[in-house]
Amino acid sequence: MTPPVNDHTQTWLPADVLAHAEMYTCIAQNTTDLIIRYDAGRTRTYVSPSVRLVLGFEPHELLGARVLTAEGRPTFFIHPEDTAYLATAIMSVGPERPNVRISGRICRKDGAWIWLEGSFSAIAGDGGVLAILRDMTEQKHAEALLAETNAKLEAANRALRDMANQDGLTGLANRRRLDEILLEEFSRARRERAPLGLVMIDIDRFKAYNDLYGHQAGDDCLRRVARAIRDAMRRPGDKVARYGGEEMTAVLPATDGRGAAALAEIMRCAVAREGIVHRLGEDGIVTVSAGVSACVPREDELDPAILVSVADRALYQAKADGRNCVRRIK
Question: Given 154, 246, 265, 282, which residue is catalytic?
Answer without folding.
Answer: 246
